[in-house]
Amino acid sequence: MLQVNELGSALAWAERSAPGLILSVPDRYVAVSAAVKRDLVEMGVAPDAITVIPAYPLAAVPESPAPARDDRRIVIVGGAGNPSWTKGVDLWLLAARETVDRLGVDRVRFVWVGSRDNEAALQFRTMIARLGLGSVVELVPETDRPYDQFARFDVFAMSSWEESASLVVLEAMAMSIPVVCFSPTGGPAEEVGEAGVVIPSISPHLMADAIVDLAGSPQKRQAIGKAGAERVAAEFTRAASIEALRKVFDSAT
C-alpha cells in the first residue's frame, strides 16, 4: 500500500527517478485528495485501487483569531509555506499588486509566513521589489508558533500552482479565517468547498477581485470564516481519517 501526498509534477519525477515505485510496486493506494486520485489515474493506476482519505489539522488549532479583527482599518491578507514555485508566490504577489492598486497602500497589507534563508526566498524578495510592494508585504520567517501569525489575518490567500492538500488551508479555516483559492490547482478547492471563495481559474486578477470584495465586508468575512470552521470540524478530523484508514487496512487483509 502506498500513501500518496503529491500531485502531477512530483509524481512524474518520482516515477522517473525510481521506475515502478508508483505504478508497479503498490497494489493499493491512499490519496490525500480527489485531485491526487485523478493524477494517479492519469498515470495509469486503476481507480478502484485508490481510496481518498482527506488530510486534517495535525495540531490543536485555536478556534478563532485575535478579537476585534474586523474593526481594524487595515485588512491583512495572509499566505504561508516555503516560497517555492509550487506555492505560487508569483501569483500571490500579482494579486497583491492589483489589490493595493485598487484599495490603496493605507488599506491593505500582505503577510507571508514561512520564509526561509534560501534561493527561493531571495527570488521572492526580488519579485516584491520589482513589483514595488516593499512597503505592504511582510515576510515572517519559519516559526513554531504559526498560529500567532495566522491570528493577524483577515483573509488567507492560497495561491499554489500545485497543492495535493493543504494543512494551512484547513488551519486557517479552523481559525475562522476566510480562504480564497484557485480551483485547478488541486486539493485546496476540495477542502474549502462552499465554505470559502474558490476561483475557477488561475487568475491573480480574480483573486484580487475576491480580496477586495472581502476587504469591503467584515460581515461576509465573518460568515465565511464561521462556515469554514464548521466545515473543518465536521469533515476534516483525525478520528474520521483513522477510521477510514482502518477500513482500508481491513479490506486488504
What is the topological layout?
Layout (H helix, E strand, L loop, with lengths): L1 E3 L3 H10 L11 E3 L2 H10 L6 E3 L22 E6 L8 H15 L4 E8 L3 H12 L6 E5 L4 H5 L4 E4 L8 H8 L4 E4 L4 H6 L4 E3 L4 H12 L2 H18 L2 H15 L1
Helix pairs in contact: 3-8, 6-9
Proportion of residues in β-strands: 15-25%
Number of domains: 2
Sheet with most strands: 6 strands, parallel
Q: Name the assembly state.
A: single chain
Q: Strand arrangement, largest sheet?
A: 6-5-4-7-8-9
Helix content: 40-55%
Structural overview:
The protein folds into two domains: about 70 residues, no CATH class; about 170 residues, Rossmann fold, CATH 3.40.50.2000. It has ten helices and nine strands. Helix 2 links the parallel strand 2 and strand 3. Helix 3 crosses helix 8 and helix 6 crosses helix 9.
Task: Describe the structure concisely for a colleague.
This protein has helices at 8-17, 34-43, 89-103, 119-130, 146-150, 167-174, 187-192, 204-215, 218-235, 238-252, and strands at residues 2-4, 29-31, 50-52, 75-80, 108-115, 137-141, 155-158, 179-182, 197-199.
Descriptive key words:
6-stranded parallel sheet; alpha/beta; globular; Rossmann fold; 2 domains
